[in-house]
Write a structure and sequence with these properties.
Length: about 475
Amino acid sequence: MASENLPPHAIIFPFMAQGHTFPLLDLAKALSFRGVKVTIITTPSNAKQISSFFTTKFSSTILTHVIPFPVVDGLLLGCENTKELTSDNQVLPFLRATLKLKQPFESYLRDLLEREDRPICAICDFFLGWAITVCASFNIPGILFYGMGVLSTKINCTLYSNEEHMMTLVNGEKLEKLSPFPLILDDFSSLKDKNSPWMKFFQENDAGGAISTCWGVLCNSFDELEGEFVRALEDFYGRSSVKVWCVGPLLLYEDGNIPKSSISNDRSNLYRSWLDEQHERKEGVIYVSFGTQSQILKSQMDEIALGLDLAGQRFIWVVRSSSWTPPEGWEERVKGRGIVIREWVDQRSILAHPAIRGFLSHCGWNSVVESLSMGVPILTWPMGADQSLNAKLVMHFLKAGLAMDPKLDEVQEDGVIYGCNAISSGVKELMSGESGRLARKRAEEIGLMARNAVKKDGSSSKKLDHLINSLQEYSVLSDC
């Protein structure tokens, strides 16, 4: 048995993607504040970014353990994060490569036990579900982190284990039983393409083993947001011992309030100064970003540009494409009214700025949590994965967002989902319409609840304390 004077030790194993990693790094800080030593399992190139996320005050409490990323056919040497994938053909080789991390992870756990440094848990991303079964073989509590909200996780877990529900959607019928809003086939991109690399990977990833052996489930959400769906998700696992722990919003733990920007390059100073100017002039700004994974065609980018121009609102637009050029004359027309950013930005600090009054978003769960935590309403544009479910949650259940109407544009090019008129109308309504005002009021209410949730006596703070205590008690029993 390890010395009783040593702090409890937790392992965190993120999937190698930006949206999956950042909330778990936030969790590492929250655990560190509570006296838990944290080791983050990662690979060489990802270790550099992870280390830069933490200030020196965490140097003795948050450590990294680096394991080599496998060399596989179809994947360039040094490609260790999904942000580095250059084509869809690389997705499946990348996912399969992560399966080969099992042996070094297993060796690391064995070494810890031999050194009598038994961790109280290993929190593992669902994409690394095999790691949960490895933990079970060592009697180490394995906690699943899905990177989705409670409702989205519950819907997906239930749907993919129920053939009747799946056939209802495939047959074009609405599914009414699983959520507070009707579900349709378009809400589940993987059902429309069962031969997608993601579906093939899940068949190889031992998802069933992870579900049957996990000790618990951790969600980046909070009771005031999704608490009424927790019991249904717990029931899915069929074991009374499995609890769902809502401990979010994880990004708010460091100071219990809105995070400050950590970036300081010339470009970030430029758009921060510009936002300050808009706030002083009492001008609202809409932030436009679609995450790190979304691929948007040039024709759709043109429509976004024209829509923002037509809307007449001030905007900050993060453009991931290095090859797209705006329509002729567009930059001159929007000069002083909008900023286009082509490099990585600190999205949290942008959303936290008081000038930001709306967010045109793909509705990835991190973006939803970040936006609502800052009291910013969302103009929804889901593009895949769980995003359609998140958009419906925001609009129909939380009442903190709006949708665009594609019918406002009669003629559309191939690949264009929303034309410039639909985008313009949606932006104007969110920023200055009555529906937008009501969504903003609701988002501000949710933002206050989010900040209260992570305070000392808040719902998420108490849940996190309870989780740590439960794991320590389990660890003592395991050592007896």
